[in-house]
Design goal:
single chain, 153 residues, alpha+beta, two-stranded antiparallel sheet, two-stranded antiparallel ribbon, 7 helices, 8 strands, 22% strand, globular
């Protein structure tokens, strides 16, 4: 009897923790209809070194966030290591996160892979924030990491 209660308790804790994590992530992440990176394939940034639109028919859900993929192979790579392919700062503009600690929309085609991590940037109206990021990357990255930690807790 005690073993059954223990099993139920473990299941309950797992389900409620996952539910809280998924709800937190979907609240914090830059999503359109619960989909990350405006439907772009997160793996393609690493394997093809370019932004590739994913297909709505090839998807994976990780902690409440939906990701689209351009191929089944990319989906399988993602599922082996989702954290390794997710964009930093919840998919918000890395420059804005570092410069003034705010969530700003991105252009999925403006990105940088740095130390095995994906960073996305705002790029519209003659304002490509990747250029500004590159001018002071070390300091902006430190500030962005600290700001994201505050915003995501």
């Amino acid at each position: 009897m005690n073993k059954q209660i223990l099993i139920l308790l473990v299941v309950f804790i797992s389900v409620t923790t996952f539910g809280q994590t998924a709800a937190k992530r979907t609240k914090e992440f830059n999503l359109e209809n619960k989909t990350a990176i405006q439907g772009y394939d997160p793996v393609a940034y690493f394997t093809q070194k370019k932004a590739v639109k994913g297909k709505a028919t090839i998807v994976a859900i990780y902690e409440g966030v939906t990701y689209n993929f351009s191929s089944q192979t990319n989906k399988e790579l993602f599922l082996k290591n989702p954290v390794g392919y997710e964009p930093q700062y919840g998919g918000w503009c890395a420059f804005a996160m570092g410069d003034y600690g705010e969530k700003v929309e991105v252009n999925p085609g403006t990105f940088k892979v740095l130390d095995g991590k994906l960073y996305l940037f705002y790029n519209a109206f003659f304002n490509n924030t990747l250029k500004s990021w590159n001018k002071d990357e070390i300091n902006l990255k430190k500030k962005a990491d600290a700001n994201w930690k505050k915003l995501s807790n």
